[in-house]
Structures are given as C-alpha cells and as structure tokens.
Write a structure and sequence with these properties.
Number of strands of chain A: 14
Structural class of chain C: mainly alpha
Largest sheet of chain C: 2 strands, antiparallel
Radius of gyration of chain A: 26 Å
Strand order of the largest sheet of chain C: 1-2
Strand order of the largest sheet of chain A: 7-6-8-9-10-13-14
Number of strands of chain C: 2
Distance between the termini of chain A: 112 Å
Chains: A alpha/beta (421), B mainly alpha (316), C mainly alpha (291)
Oligomer: heterotrimer
Strand content of chain C: under 5%
Shape of chain C: globular
Order of helices and strands of chain A: HEHEHEHHEHEHEHEHEHEHEHHHEEEE
Helix content of chain C: over 70%
Order of helices and strands of chain C: HHHHHEEHHHHHHH
C-alpha cells in the first residue's frame, strides 16, 4: 500500500514537475518570442545637426512601426534604445558603451554625421558588430572595418566621387572653362570635399586660381566672394555648411559673381526652409543632392514614404519636405531588415557577409555596397535649380525645380550654362 | 583634514578604484567615471587661480585642448606607442608655460583683463589648431585605441585608473598649496591685492606660480582625452562647455577650500552623466547654467560654505 | 591678387562690418566699460533681440529695424530687473569679481538653452525689401544688407553718446563710473543710476539683434562667436569711452576683412584676438581709456 501511495505520489510529483517544466519552457519560449529586438544608437537631437537628426529619427520610427505591423523581425517586435548625443563627439563613446553593456542592445546603427559616427567606431569594432551608417564622409577610410555599411551614395572613393560630377560637367562645356576657384568652410566635410575637388579639377586640366578656407564664424561673405571674383574664375566650387551656404549664395548675388558655373558641395541647399528663403537666388546653381522629386528618381515606395514622413513631420520643427536625409534613414534600416530576414538570425558575421554580397531594393532604389562599406557605384547627383519662385515652399515638392544634370543614367534635363546670363 | 588622515583617504580611494576595476566589468561606468574625474581635475586646477587667488579663467577649454593636442601631436610624431605618462608630462610642461606666458602678459593688470585675455587665448589657439593640418586641422584627428592595456581588463579601465591617479595628485597639490605659505599669500591677494602688496607679499610672483600650476594641471586633464574619445576636432576640444564646467564645479562646491571643487565636480558631473542617458544631453547645459546661477546667488560660498555654516550652527 | 578695387572694397566692407560691431558692443561699453560689470552674457541678449525680430517679422511682416526699436523698452525693463538681482546678490556684498562673472556666464548658458528648447537650432532669417540689393559707387559695391545696419548702428552709437554726455541721467551714469561717492553726495542714488544704465545697455541689444539677423542667419549659439569680439572692442577702445569703442569696432571690422580678403579668412579670428592680447600687453588702457 505504502509502495503504491508513494509510487502514486512519485508519479504525481514527477507529473507536476514535468508539467511545470513544460509550461515553464513554453512560457519562456513565448517570452523569448515576445522579447523585443533592441536597436541602439545615438542621434543628434539637439545641437548643430539636430534639424537633420530629428528628421532622421522620424523616418526611422516610421520604419520601426512598419516592421512591427508586419510582425517584427524574426517574429520579435523591434524597439529602439537611443540617446541624444547633442552633436558632441565626446558623448558618443559613453553612449555606445552604455547601449552595449547596460542596455544590452542586439544591434547598433550610427548617429548622423561624420563627427558623431567616428567616435563609435572603436567600440563597434571591438564588439565585432555590423554598423549601418548614416551619412558620414569617408569615415571608414581610417578604420577599414569590414562590417561598416554607409547608406550615403557617395561611392567607393567618397572624397573624389563627391565633386567628380561637377567637374565632369564643367569639362564638357564648350568653350571649355579654364580656371577654377575652390572655397571651403573650416570643418570636416567641407575640407574633405574641397580636397577631392582639388584633385578632380587638376585631373580635368583646370587651373586653380583661388583655394582658400574660411572660419565657420564668418559674418560677412561679401569680401570672400569679392576676393574670388578678383581672380576671375570660370568655375566656382563651394564646400559649405548651411549658414555659410546661405551667406555665399547671397554674397554671390550681391557682388554679381561672373562665374560660368557655381555651386558643388554646399550643404543646406537641400533643406526646404533654406530653399524657400533663397528663392530665385538659387537659379542655375549646380549643387550636389541625393534625391529630388524628378521623374527619373521615382523609386518604388519613395513617394508613399515621403507622404507619410511629411504627415509625421508636421509641427515638429524639422524639414517639412524631407527629401534629403529621411529616405536614406528609412533605407538603411530596410537594408538591416532584409538582411535579418534573409539570414534568419542576428549573427553579426552572417549579416555582414550578406550585406556585402547583396543588392538591396529600398525606397532610394537599388543599394549595393562595395569597398570599405561604401556604395559600389557613386550616385552623387548634380542638380541644377531652375525657375525658382520667391517665397514658395510647395514648388519644391514636385518636379521641375531641381533638374538632375548628372550622372547620365539619372539625368532629367540638360544643364543651363553659363550660370549667369 | 590632518595630514595622516588625508593621505590615508587618498590611499583608500586608490585602492577602491583598483578593486572597482577588478569587480565591475561593465565598461560604461568607467566611461562615466572618466568624464567625472576629468571634470574634477579641471575644477581643482581652475580653483588654484580662481578660488585661491581670485582671478577668473574663462579660457579653461584652451588649456585643456592644448593638452589634448599635445598628445595628438606627439602621437603623430613618435607613433602611438609612446607611453601615456610621457604625453601627460609634456602636456603639463606646454600648458604650464602657456599659463606662465599669459600670466606674465596680463596679471600685472586688473583681474578682468586677465579673464578676457584667457578667452582670447582660447580662441587664438583654436584658430591655430584649425589651421594646423598636422594634427588634423578643422577636420579633426582620429586616434586609434592602442592594443596594450597593461594588466587591466580593458583600455577604458586603464584610462580610469590613470585619471584617478591624476585627480588624487591634483587634489594633493591643491591641498598643499592651500595650506602652505604660498597659499596664504594667494588668499591675501584674493582678499585685497593692494593691501597684500603693501604688506610685502610678492603678488606678481605668486600669481604667476598659480597661473603656471593651473595651466599645467589643465593640460594634464586634457592629455589622455584623445585616447578616451578617439576623435578630436578643435570645435569639440575647445568647447565652451568645458570652460563653463571648469567654473561651475568649483563655484558650486566652494572655492575657498581645496575639497570644494571635488565636491562640485562629483555633484555636477554625476548629474550630467545621469541626464545624458535619461533625458537629453542638451539639458545638461541648462542644468549647469541653472545650478551655477542658483548657487552663486544663494550660496556664494558653495557647498563647503553651507557645510561650514551648518557645522558652526551645530557647534553653538 | 592685390588690386586697388579689391582693396577699396575690403576697406569699405570692413567699415560697414565695424559699424555693425559697434552696435553690438555699445551695450557692453556701458556695462563693462563704465559700470565694471563683466556681462559676458551680452551677446546672448543680442541673440534674443535677433529672435524677437525674427518672430515679429515672420508673423506681422514688420521691418526688423523697426521691431528692434519698438522692443527697446521691453529689453530695458529686463535689463533693469537683472541688475536688481545682480546688485542684491553680488555688488552689495562685494562679491562681484568672482561670483558676478560666473553669474553672467551661467545666465548666458541658460538663455542659449532656453532659445534652443523653444526654437531649435535651425538658422533663422528675416526678409526685408532691401536685403539683396546693392548700390555700386564706381568699383565699390555696397550691399544694403550691410549698409542699413551700418547706418542704424551709427545712429545708435551717436544717440547713446549724446545721451550720456548731454542729459542729466546720462552724465550721472558717467559719474557713477568715475566716482560713486561723489555722485551720492550730489544727491543721485548710484544704485538707481546703475540700474538705469544696465537697462539701457540691454535695450541696445534689441536693436543690435535685429541688425544681426539682417546681416545673416542666426541660431542660438551664434552669440558665442561675438563674446570675444565685443570684449576685444571695448578693451581696445578703452574702458569708459564710447568714441573709443566705435573706433575700435571700425578697426576690428577693417582688420578682419583685410585679413580675410588677402591672407585667407581662416586667420581672421586669431588676428583679431592677437590684436587684443597685444593691446593688453602694450597699452592696457586701450586707445582712449581713462588710466
């Protein structure tokens, strides 16, 4: 009797234990299934680059919501863990260390801007993580990290590819212009762009007659433009950040700059608020851009994305049209998403390998990475402003105001040359 | 604090730091502590001239950044394998000389001219760094983390111990200065320079010594910075935020006593680190500004002053 | 690269710029030059003036200079209030050298961050009919964007100078700078006089700010670029001298522009402050200062 009772007790006990174990593992399995995938990053939400940083975040959140509607990644919901780096490189190492060792994020992506991406590199490299990167110029030239992927379509030689189109266009004109002036702000990107411009200009046989930089704190650009005018250049290449871009355009107008081609590497002429303010002063300026609402660039999904972005951006104090950074911020997460879906795991090595060999289809078209994680083929567009009406934001939402004049496969019109009639 | 008690606490803190590196493996905390300690060195240094002598330095970021750029320049000339102590020592000498030079130019004048000169000095050096391609110019310099980190588990742990040593060293120097004859002379200058001069205090010489010491200590705080942040450009190295912290921390902690800047740095530094990872980094600037204004308006002697008043009341 | 017309243009542009610098510095010439209050937050107030001009210009389309002038009473009251706090906390207790400096430093940061939190860091611009037009006199081109601020700045400087030297309150301000006790004996309350002076100084920032945003785009941290400039101008001009400040401003504007045109713009900031350091080393009382 005792034997049976204890046998029954034993069976009952083991049954309970088995049931507990089964439900426990079932629960942990469900908990595992529901456990979110955390993507960590720092973003410039305050400070100099905050306008673009906040716009990028809006685009990224749209992606996150889209992915979660589809059931998440690998069946798990996606969560962001991010901190404001205040456009200050000194905060970046601390933030990424926290993301990895305290918040224990599964994946990392970068902040926006060369100065904010670079400080994260050593940490990311030490942890052997895949690092999708948002708009930093030639950061990986220093590190040669094989898990770095840059969504900015600068091309395999970013510093040269940036201005290559500008000088190719110049060289094609008849009669061929002879002289070039290069002017740049004393800051990371403009100096890199100017260095590339120098090489491109020399390669095309131009004579450089002015080659100077200015401090970003300059108030008045008229003396600089006058000094440029005094050397009588045919072509003027400017590498600048938004406030100086505005200053240079206005000063060029005031001085009556007689160059035949003007523009090149001016950041800020892609931002809606600046486009609206400068208005007709932009006419015929040839400048870099990465996307414009031209019929040749109507990639699948981009118009819908922009419509949703523009809705979400209302009242947030960011670029209302969102043509510059947001599509790329959405796209680089699409790359991550497609890779994870294809590889069916979070294994960083497998993801990196997949990202290297695949051509992705995103809202910014086909994306293929090449050497150093940069785009295999450059897609730095040269756009020319045409017939810009004063004080009108909506005109930039549609085609016809920013004609793509280079490269040939994306052209939507011919260049008007010379710059000033 | 009596001599023996002081040195005992120094050793205790050092040992605690070592234990921390063995016990805690989470790199983030060392990151945060590094920044707090850096603030502490800057605060202690600033106080040597500001609190002890009464001359306000607005250009602290200039000394700090020159220290950082000394490291970068040495690294580019001799390779990254140059040991950190050499960089620190060189930065101390370079920045000390700058402090001496600046002092010699302006300390014969009213205090406010010195303050403006420090601001001008910072801008001049920033422009020089912006135009010096060897250290990266305006584009900045990348510093790759060296492979060796002695017996520590990671590089940041080693940097943390280095900073801890430097902080304790600065505190010891500051305390020695405070208590010495030199310190009494400085206090006399702070209270009434003309009277001190009449009483025979060699005011110019003392001021020059403080300025040199302050410069050297700030350079020391800046020397390991490139290895911590891995990317240095003039805009972030010469940031006004560094200068504000260097003033706010001692003023909040209390400028009259050598421990004031340390307390201020711990309080403000920790608050800033917490805010960076909770609310927003930009809020840090508001916090520093508000804390500074509140403290100097309501508690001009800082936390040390409040503590002294409290103890005095208790004693009654 | 050298040519007569480039040189002439650089001189003219430098003078126009210098005139504008005078408008920015005149408030500091009063607070620092005459009251010995080291208001390092002065450029931050100028930025507040710029934002005021921006907001009103955007909503009501008023001319920025007009907005600046209209808001001088508001800024005056704010300045007077700040002085009250400063006096109660520092001057009365004799702490002004150390704590006073730090007070304004903290104030500067608070102003900047509040602006950032309210308006973000995007660059703000104003629109006015004359921005963008240029008159050409021979080979010298004068953009209205610089000419209008220069004209207003000259009027402002002249106005303040006349006020200080001709009116009773104005002379009381000059007097309190030189001899506080004597002023008291003459029956004027030095605290009230200083309060008025500080209010006046901040009132000028309303106008200076509107001029700044006419010249170029403004965002909250632009003020920092002016801290060094304004102090350099006041010191170079000589403490307590308005004409000295005006001349120093013109000198600085011309030097910056000449260096920018002929040597390369990246050296302009260093040259300006090199000039300041030289002044402090060789003639600390400045060009026209009282010894």
């Amino acid at each position: 009797m005792i034997k049976r009772r204890s046998f029954m007790r034993a069976t009952l006990a083991s049954g309970v234990i088995a049931l507990a174990a089964a439900s426990g593992s079932l629960l942990s399995f469900t908990a595992q299934a529901a456990q979110p995938i955390k993507i960590g990053f720092s973003m410039a939400l305050t400070g100099g680059l905050a306008g673009a940083g906040k716009a990028a975040l809006i685009a990224m959140e749209l992606w996150r919501d889209d992915v979660n509607k589809k059931g998440g990644l690998l069946g798990r919901p996606v969560e962001f863990v991010y901190y404001d780096d205040a456009t200050n490189p000194a905060t970046v190492p601390g933030i990424y260390t926290k993301l990895l060792s305290v918040d224990k994020v599964d994946l990392v992506v970068s902040s926006y801007g060369t100065n904010e991406i670079a400080p994260a590199m050593p940490i990311v490299m030490r942890n052997k993580l895949v690092f999708p990167s948002l708009f930093g110029l030639a950061v990986n030239d220093e590190f040669h990290y094989d898990r770095y992927f840059q969504i900015m379509p600068a091309g395999p030689e970013p510093k040269l590819d940036w201005s290559r189109g500008f000088f190719e266009l110049a060289a094609e004109q008849k009669p061929k212009p002879q002289t070039v002036a290069i002017v740049a702000a004393d800051a990371e990107f403009p100096l890199a762009a100017a260095a590339g411009a120098r090489k491109n200009a020399q390669a095309k046989g131009f004579k450089i007659v002015y080659d100077k930089t200015y401090p970003p704190s300059t108030t008045d650009y008229t003396p600089i433009v006058r000094a440029i005018q005094a050397t009588n250049p045919d072509v003027v290449f400017v590498a600048s950040y938004p406030p100086d871009s505005v200053g240079m355009v206005k000063a060029a107008h005031e001085v009556g700059l007689k160059a035949k081609m003007f523009g090149g590497g001016m950041v800020g002429l892609q931002f809606a608020a600046i486009q609206k303010n400068l208005g007709p002063l932009l006419d015929n300026i040839v400048n870099y851009d990465f996307w414009a609402p031209e019929p040749t660039l109507n990639f699948p999904g981009v118009k819908e994305f922009l419509a949703r972005y523009q809705e979400a951006a209302k009242g947030k104090g960011v670029d209302p049209l969102g043509h510059y950074l947001p599509p790329y911020a959405y796209a680089y997460l699409q790359v991550l998403e497609q890779s994870i879906d294809a590889v069916k795991s979070l294994d960083q090595a497998k993801l990196a390998a997949y990202m290297h060999e695949t051509a992705f289809k995103t809202v910014v078209g086909d994306v293929k990475f090449g050497k150093n994680g940069e785009w295999q083929k450059s897609r730095v567009l040269m756009v020319q402003f045409r017939d810009v009406q004063p004080d009108n934001l909506e005109q930039f939402a549609g085609p016809g105001k920013r004609i793509v004049v280079y490269p040939k496969e994306w052209k939507s019109g011919d260049i008007v040359y010379p710059y000033k009639k | 604090m009596k001599g023996r008690a002081f040195w005992a606490s120094i050793v205790a803190v050092l040992v605690a730091g070592l234990i921390l590196t063995q016990v805690v493996s989470n790199e983030y905390y060392f990151n945060a502590l590094y920044v707090i300690l850096q603030g502490a060195i800057m605060a202690v240094a600033w106080n040597v001239l500001g609190g002890f002598t009464g001359y306000v330095n607005f250009g602290s970021a200039g000394f700090f950044a020159v220290g950082a750029y000394t490291s970068i320049a040495l690294g580019k000339t001799f390779g990254q394998s140059l040991p950190l102590p050499v960089m620190i020592a060189t930065a101390a000498v370079v920045c000390g000389l700058i402090g001496l030079g600046l002092g010699y130019l302006t300390l014969r004048l009213k205090g406010v001219y010195f303050s403006i000169a420090t601001l001008a000095m910072a801008i001049v050096f920033e422009t020089l760094m912006n135009n010096w391609p060897f250290v990266g110019g305006a584009r900045g310099a990348y510093i790759l983390t060296p492979d060796s980190h002695l017996w520590f588990n990671s590089y940041i742990e080693m940097l943390f111990m280095v900073m801890l040593l430097l902080t304790l060293g600065s505190v010891a120097v500051s305390r020695a200065l405070n208590a010495s004859r030199l310190g009494r002379g400085l206090a006399a200058i702070r209270d009434d320079e003309v009277a001190a001069e009449c009483a025979g205090v060699p005011t110019l010489r003392l001021k020059l010594i403080s300025a040199t010491l302050m410069g050297a200590m700030m350079g020391v705080a800046g020397a390991p910075y490139p290895y911590f942040v891995t990317f240095v450009d003039p805009a972030s190295a010469f940031s006004l935020f560094v200068a504000v912290n260097a003033i706010a921390m001692p003023m909040i902690g209390g400028t009259a006593h050598w421990i004031g800047p340390v307390i201020g740095a711990l309080l403000v530094g920790t608050a800033q680190q917490v805010i960076t990872v909770t609310v927003s980094s930009e809020l840090n600037v508001l916090v520093v500004g508000v804390m500074l204004v509140l403290f100097i308006t309501l508690a001009p002697q800082g936390i040390v002053g409040l503590a002294q008043k409290y103890l005095a009341r208790r004693a009654r | 690269m050298w040519s007569v017309d480039l040189f002439a243009n650089a001189i003219v542009a430098g003078l126009l710029l210098g005139g504008f610098y005078a408008a920015v510095s005149i408030g500091l010439a009063i607070t620092f030059g005459q009251l010995d209050i080291v208001n390092i937050a002065h450029p931050a107030f100028v930025i507040v003036g710029s934002y005021t001009a921006y907001i009103i210009n955007r909503h009501f389309g008023l001319d920025p200079v007009l907005i600046g002038v209209l808001f001088t009473p508001v800024f005056f009251l704010v300045g007077a209030a700040i002085y009250r706090v400063y006096y109660a906390a520092f001057e009365r207790t004799g702490q002004e050298s150390l704590s006073g400096l730090a007070f304004f430093f903290g104030l500067m940061f608070i102003i900047e961050v509040l602006l950032i939190m309210a308006y973000g860091v995007d660059y703000r611009l104003v629109s006015a009919g004359y921005i963008g037009r240029t008159i050409n006199i021979g080979f010298v081109g004068i953009p209205f964007r610089m000419l209008v601020p220069f004209a207003v700045a000259t009027a402002l400087t002249a106005g303040v100078y006349l006020y200080l030297s001709r009116t009773f309150t104005g002379r009381a301000i000059l007097a309190v700078a030189q001899d506080r006790l004597a002023l008291q004996l003459m029956g004027a309350d030095p605290v009230k006089v200083k309060q008025f002076a500080f209010g006046l100084a901040i009132a000028t920032t309303a106008i200076a700010g509107s001029l700044l945003i006419i010249i170029g785009p403004v965002e909250p941290s632009v003020g920092r670029q002016y801290i060094g400039r304004v102090f350099a101008i006041v010191v170079l001009g000589g403490m307590g001298s308005i004409p000295g400040m005006a001349i120093a401003a013109l000198i600085l504007g011309v030097v910056e522009t000449l260096v920018g045109t002929f040597m390369g713009p990246s050296w302009s900031p260093a040259v300006s402050f090199g000039v300041l350091l030289l002044t402090l080393a060789l003639r600390p009382s400045g060009l026209f200062g009282r010894k």
